[in-house]
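Sample pair:
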Amino acid sequence: MERGKMAEAESLETAAEHERILREIESTDTACIGPTLRSVYDGEEHGRFMEKLETRIRNHDREIEKMCNFHYQGFVDSITELLKVRGEAQKLKNQVTDTNRKLQHEGKELVIAMEELKQCRLQQRNISATVDKLMLCLPVLEMYSKLRDQMKTKRHYPALKTLEHLEHTYLPQVSHYRFCKVMVDNIPKLREEIKDVSMSDLKDFLESIRKHSDKIGETAMKQAQQQRNLDNIVLQQPRIGSKRKPKKDAYTIFDTEIESTSPKSEQDSGILDVEDEEDDEEVPGAQDLVDFSPVYRCLHIYSVLGARETFENYYRKQRRKQARLVLQPPSNMHETLDGYRKYFNQIVGFFVVEDHILHTTQGLVNRAYIDELWEMALSKTIAALRTHSSYCSDPNLVLDLKNLIVLFADTLQVYGFPVNQLFDMLLEIRDQYSETLLKKWAGIFRNILDSDNYSPIPVTSEEMYKKVVGQFPFQDIELEKQPFPKKFPFSEFVPKVYNQIKEFIYACLKFSEDLHLSSTEVDDMIRKSTNLLLTRTLSNSLQNVIKRKNIGLTELVQIIINTTHLEKSCKYLEEFITNITNVLPETVHTTKLYGTTTFKDARHAAEEEIYTNLNQKIDQFLQLADYDWMTGDLGNKASDYLVDLIAFLRSTFAVFTHLPGKVAQTACMSACKHLATSLMQLLLEAEVRQLTLGALQQFNLDVRECEQFARSGPVPGFQEDTLQLAFIDLRQLLDLFIQWDWSTYLADYGQPTCKYLRVNPVTALTLLEKISREMKDTSRKNNMFAQFRKNERDKQKLIDTVAKQLRGLISSHHS
């Protein structure tokens, strides 16, 4: 029972599966029926499926047959109509064929025309395409032609720009053409050619700049000088409106048209022709002389080519080399001012060019590079100036050099270069200038002193008097009251020396101009230099004159008078310096003039020389003395030599009227003392071993003549008998021997009131021994003691006793 149920369930499932497969076959595309049939054959009931399939087919056939039967009449009607249409279609076909034949026959010419039109259209299209391609190629060819023209006319920077446009804009549009490949291959070569040619232009420019740096610098310094002159005029005339042209800026911006159509050759680089501009009122700007376009072109070209750094390094290296050449001074630079001027012009020209390059290019040179070059230039320039200026012995050349250095510094300062070290160096040159001035003025003073007549200046008219007073500050009311002709107390060298001192001060002042020094510094410099002039130069000149061998007493007296007046004029020199420097002498740290000391020293030296000269003259007269020390005759007048000597002294002291009283008195006292000392030496000299009392009497007459001269007052101002004291030693000694007053001398010796207080025992003993020797000489018959021959032995004994006592006095004095 169960098996039957199971079989029935399986048959139902199989029937249902077969039904599904049939529906799937009916609804599925025939291309995809394979898998469905495979599922039938995979099963075991394909026989039963076939039966059902046959049953389904018979069912469909019956349905088709029913449907056909239902539509049969309509089908027959349709076939009948179709047969009718077939006939009509045949007719239509024949008509179409006939029409086609006629159309083909009639359209044959049209086809030919259309074919021709087709060819024309094709040609037209080809032509249009060709024109389009040519339109693309023509700009390339035009640019290339323009490039060649620019290369030919040496317009390299525009050529490089054209090359850039050609390479990046035009050639990519026609890169498939063979001629473009040739152009592309030539582009690197053209770039190198442009690069080489621009570098050649730069080298020509650098060479031209090196040769013409002095011209550039000269023009720049002229501009600075003009500006300084204009500034001075404005300072001197502040209220007068200036209508001058405005000064050009230090940095002139050049409108250099790099892509100008006018060709420029290598000869265009460097210095422009300005010969015709020299006569113009306005000096052209330094940059106006230079065409910097080669530098700009080369810089732009190398920048475009990506080699800017290479160009910058090359330019800086070459300019450093040129700087070293410019800074090398010529060996004979110190000989003339033109040598210094050319040297400065070259340096200024170099830095004017570099400064302009700095301000008109971006980075070709920078401030650090310029500062480095300037530091090197400054050190080398200062070293060169120190060396060469030391050879200058002409103060005018040193002054001109100073002015040139100031102009050099001012010019470079306009361009922003620090120049403090140059002004510091000028202070060193100032000392050298002072030395050269001192040497020059030493010669001037020497000539003045050598050419002076050492006589008071005579004046015969009021005009001459005022002329002298105008040259030298002198006031004397008594002299003014005197009638003409009259004389100034000093000689011509006084106003000449005074004016030369003022000229020296002016010369010192000239050097201090434009050094940016304060009034106090200028005043201090002038005073120190003037002190050197007075204490060293003028003092040495005066000393040399005073120490001259052939100098006379008259000249010495006049020198003393002259130095006295020059000493008084020192206060006027102080006022003169104060007036030109506007620094009051009471200002702190103001240097005082040492003129007073200088003239005092010179006067003292002249005084000493007068004393020495007088003594020498006295010695010359004394050399003429010819005493007969053995004479027994008693003379009645002074010796001739002494009379002449006294006459000389009187005439000499008469010249001393204009000397200060103390000087004249000292000279007179010194002369008398020297005369007394010399006479004493004559009397006591060792060569005179014997002398008589007669010779002593003659000597006494000479001493009386000297005393008479002293009493006559040859120089006013001595107190009574003061000058006679110079001969007191001789007088007491002679009185002792002539009066033979030995008892008084020996008794009063050593007492303040002693009559023969000035007689030295040694001197007395020496003279006594000489007399004693004469008395012992029996060969002399005209002895003064001859009448006392009977007492000769007693007298000799007396002399021996006195001599013994004198020796005792000498021994006791030494003990």
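The longest strand covers residues 270-271.
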